[in-house]
Amino acid sequence: MSQLCIRANVTGRVQGVGFRFHTAHEGLKYSLKGYAKNLPDGSVEILACGEKENIDALLLWLGSGVKLADIKSIKTEELEWRHVDGFTIK
């Protein structure tokens, strides 16, 4: 099992629809560590660290997990492993 961290930038209607809350809930469900944070441009940045298959599951969920959201794009980049406590909303 491989541990990794990713940073995802999700664009579309993702602020004001509970996106960060639900993302944090899913992150914890998949035993991931990280955060979900609103950015000034209207997108949401997600840091997720954990097992690759759990990160893949979160990324799959991001595309359709919040009913009120309207996802336009999800861009990801792999980051160097880092220790993060919990999955927080920023």
Automatic annotation (TrEMBL):
<protein>
    <recommendedName>
        <fullName>Acylphosphatase</fullName>
        <ecNumber>3.6.1.7</ecNumber>
    </recommendedName>
</protein>
<feature type="domain" description="Acylphosphatase-like">
    <location>
        <begin position="5"/>
        <end position="90"/>
    </location>
</feature>
<dbReference type="Pfam" id="PF00708">
    <property type="entry name" value="Acylphosphatase"/>
</dbReference>
<dbReference type="InterPro" id="IPR017968">
    <property type="entry name" value="Acylphosphatase_CS"/>
</dbReference>
<dbReference type="InterPro" id="IPR036046">
    <property type="entry name" value="Acylphosphatase-like_dom_sf"/>
</dbReference>
<comment type="similarity">
    <text>Belongs to the acylphosphatase family.</text>
</comment>
<feature type="active site">
    <location>
        <position position="38"/>
    </location>
</feature>
<dbReference type="InterPro" id="IPR001792">
    <property type="entry name" value="Acylphosphatase-like_dom"/>
</dbReference>
<keyword id="KW-0378">Hydrolase</keyword>
<feature type="active site">
    <location>
        <position position="20"/>
    </location>
</feature>
<dbReference type="InterPro" id="IPR020456">
    <property type="entry name" value="Acylphosphatase"/>
</dbReference>
